[in-house]
Amino acid sequence: EAGVTQFPSHSVIEKGQTVTLRCDPISGHDNLYWYRRVMGKEIKFLLHFVKESKQDESGMPNNRFLAERTGGTYSTLKVQPAELEDSGVYFCASSVSGGILTGELFFGEGSRLTVL
Amino acid sequence: KQEVTQIPAALSVPEGENLVLNCSFTDSAIYNLQWFRQDPGKGLTSLLLIQSSQREQTSGRLNASLDKSSGRSTLYIAASQPGDSATYLCAVTGNTGKLIFGQGTTLQVKP
């Protein structure tokens, strides 16, 4: 069975451009999370979907970030316009209901974003 | 606000040594604590999860302890091997369901 897959693995864009990151969770996982790690900092929570609904988006840094999960399957995270401080690695994770409390949370390999 | 700190930030040891990685957190109101491993360019792999009611968990050469009242956890790695080289991350789950991570300890085990 496929794990959590993220695309692209690495994206290099200029400041002011737009980038869209995609996450395909494990099939049947209702919970989908986005995290990111900027250089020199710890991994931080961005938002949490339950199926297609945003359960918690308290970690989204500003309105340049837009996350969607149409149909409750894959999710996209769009950054528009990108700024230098958006550079980092964006991780997606998925779990079944209650999985985060039992540790059954599965992470993708991350999408590295470099903004020049 | 929950904060998680990991010490040391980096560690280099010869193969065969036993070692301890430390993690501390400021708010003891947690559901659980996890230790993850991250290899370069890869995702996070959960190594051990300790529920708030537990004191320790073991898996092979790994042993993780939790002292919730003092806000501390340790990851003990016995008889380290070069294949253990990776970044080890500690994360707590609070009542919001989010994971709060430390900055990690980068371990290098030399042959």
Q: How many individual helices of chain B?
A: 0
Strand content of chain A: over 45%
General form of chain B: globular
- Intertermini distance of chain A: 37 Å
Summarize the structure in words.
The complex is a heterodimer of chains A (116) and B (111). Chain A is mostly beta strands and 116 residues long. Chain A is built from 1 helix and 11 strands. Chain A has one helix at residues 99-102, and strands spanning 5-7, 10-13, 19-24, 31-37, 44-50, 53-56, 65-68, 75-79, 88-95, 106-107, 111-115. Chain B is mostly beta strands and 111 residues long. Chain B is 0% helix and 58% strand. Chain B is globular. Chain B starts with a strand and ends with a strand. The model of chain B has no long low-confidence stretch (mean pLDDT 94). Chain A binds chain B through residues 3-4, 33, 35, 41-45, 48, 56, 59, 91, 93, 100-103, 105, 107-110, and chain B through 4, 31-32, 34, 36, 41-46, 49, 89, 91, 93, 96-104.
Give short descriptive properties of this protein.
heterodimer, A: 116 residues, mainly beta, seven-stranded mixed β-sheet, four-stranded antiparallel β-sheet, 1 helix, globular, B: 111 residues, six-stranded mixed β-sheet, five-stranded antiparallel β-sheet
